[in-house]
Amino acid sequence: MIDKNKLIDTLFELNLFYCAGKAEYFLDSETKSPFFFDINSINSFPFFKPFFLDSLVSLIKKACDYGDGKNTELLLAAVGHSGIPFTALASDKLSLPMIYIRDSSKKHGKKNLIEGSVKEGIATLLFTETLSSKAKLENAVRALNEKKGDIKGIVTIFNMLDVSDVKIDDNIIPVYSLIDLASLIERAEKNKLIDKKNIEIMANWKSQGNPAASKTPCVSDKGCPKVSHDAQKAAEVLLDIKAVALSVKEPFRYASGILSPIYCDNRLLVSNPEKWNIIINIMEQIIKTEVGIENIEVIAGTSTAGIPHAALLAEKFSLPMIYVKSEKGEIEKRSNIEGSLFYGKRVLVIEDLVSTGKSSIESVRILREHGAIVDYCVAIFTYQMESAEKVFADEKCTLFTASNFKTLIKTAVDGKYITDDEAEKAVNWSSDPPNWGKKYGYE
Question: What is the pLDDT, as a whole number, of residue 228?
């Protein structure tokens, strides 16, 4: 199991964080930054190195379903000399072939750019210890394309760009990371791992973005949904059981009057036990790796759609379960909360769907009014509306989701549910839902 928080804590414990306060560190040929993490120095600490290596091996397995009988052949490719140490260790651990790709061709001998051999069509994962810009990867991707390698993804220990994929030429390559910048900033701030000034420097660099990267917008800086293997898997489940309906030609009209190319009904999950179990397992991993089981004492479902998922998750973690109603009702306790909630308990909210975020945050407020400490919400799916970003940020509640709108759209294109042109229209919807219908001539 990958423990992101422990990885982050260890980076700071080993004093691998460097911050100059101005952009004077070259991360690659095109990118300068006021800070960086010396990831490769982890190899100088034999006690801590196995933890990072084991986490990386787990990530590689997840990225390509390696070891599950789906990919019997896999090639690991180190990007530049800095990618070699961990690639070699992971290659040895998994008994996989590896290559390394130079930043530029040798000027002597065979003048190779790629060292090692690439079998045509072999599934390949690129590894870079820190993903800091697209420029760092361009030579490697083009070199592998010339060799007709099948690039399945980019694996990195530290994703400075907070991106879910990188576009290079005609390749859109998914990114799998152990640590993302948003989570690192949040953890450092929450646990006071470094001083406030350095946290602000990292946050400012993140908010400015990096023009060299193909960046996927987030629902929020905290708990930013990323196109991970699990997020894609969750999207596939929702599409498979037809919980999500996509229609760009004839959009759906919500109760609010907004037109949308998507309608999500996660309630269908409970009638599909096998698929439902996949989603619950993904949510379980989010709770373990993102929220931290040590931060939860009670699990609360939102009425009514969040209740069944909350019940299963509470059972998995052997935790008390309650649920929250928007109205008190006219019978029994006449309370917004069903179940026993003691003052000061740390409560995790389980939601099925986040659209504007208002109903989810209403549950958070009700729980807080009853004395609960509520810092996190885990949902199955989010439409990634800007209004949700704002309301969760205003309430200081971090949202994590099993999948999200942009992941679903990408999965729908890959599965030929919709065309590329339809996908572009759909993606534009999430940035401005109220005006989307007028923009595309639907009203």
Answer: 59
How much is the pLDDT for 56? 95
Regarding beta strands 114-115 and 98-101, do their DSSP bridges make them parallel or antiparallel, or are they unpaired?
A: antiparallel
Compute CA distances 290 → 6, 132, 302, 307, whole Å: 11, 22, 20, 21
Longest dimension (CA), the chain: 84
Contact 164, 150 (CB under 8 A): no
Model confidence at 72, pLDDT cuts 50, 70, 90, reads low
In whole angstroms, give the CA distance from residue 310 to residue 217: 28
Do residues 324 and 361 lie in contact, with contact meaning Cβ atoms separated by under 8 Å?
no
For residues 91 and 87, what is the distance between their CA atoms, to the nearest angstrom? Answer: 6
Helix (H, G, I), strand (E, B) or coil at 114: strand
- State pLDDT tens for residues 9-34: 999 999 999 888 776 787 776 678 89
The closest of 326, 333, 315, 329 to 351, measured between CA atoms, is: 326
Entry pTM = 0.51
Is residue 215 packed enough to be buried (19+ CB in 10 Å), middle (13-18) or exposed (0-12)?
middle
Q: Are the C-beta atoms of residues 138 and 191 closer than 8 Å to each other? A: no
**pLDDT over 80 at 210, yes or no:** no
The mean pLDDT value for 63-72 works out to 63
The H-or-E segment that residue 118 falls in is none
Two structure tokens written together for 30: 């095109």
**Confidence bin at 211 (pLDDT 50/70/90):** very low
Give the contacts of 345 (CB within 8 A, at least 6 positions apart): 297, 298, 371, 372, 373
Count of CA atoms in the C-beta half-sphere (13 A) of 345: 18
HSE, CB side, 13 Å, CA atoms: give it for residue 320: 11
Q: How confident is the model at residue 215 (pLDDT cuts 50, 70, 90)?
A: very low
Q: How many CB atoms lie within 10 A of CB 354?
A: 26
Q: Which letter, b or e, does each residue of 112-132 get, where b requires 16 or more Cβ atoms within 10 Å of its Cβ?
A: ebbeeebeeebbbbbbbbbbb
Parallel, antiparallel or unpaired: strands 32-33 and 25-26 = antiparallel
Decide: helix, strand or coil at residue 225: coil
Helix-strand-coil split of the chain, %, nearest 5: 40, 25, 35
Residue 213 has pLDDT above 80, yes or no: no
Specify whether the CB–CB gap between 138 and 28 falls below 8 A. Answer: no
Are 229 and 63 in contact by the 8 Å Cβ rule? The answer is: yes
Give the integer Cα–Cα distance in Å for 168 and 294: 41
Instruction: Give me the mean pLDDT over the 306-329 stretch.
Output: 87
